[in-house]
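So, read this over?
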Amino acid sequence: SIAEQLGVERRSAFLNMVSGARAAGTNAAYDRAFKVFEEFCGVKGVSALPAAPATLADFLLELQRRDAVHG
């Protein structure tokens, strides 16, 4: 996960830095979206960070497929 990659102190400092730049709801939405991406990467057995371009493309195609099925 991103927390493991950044370490507790760096993650905390980073989140403090960016939290003032956006509304709390925006940060929560970004966090939820990234968790979906991390789960996708885990299922695929690939790294979320740094993400390969092909991983991002596959993720976006999966989101489009989900929207077509559930939309």
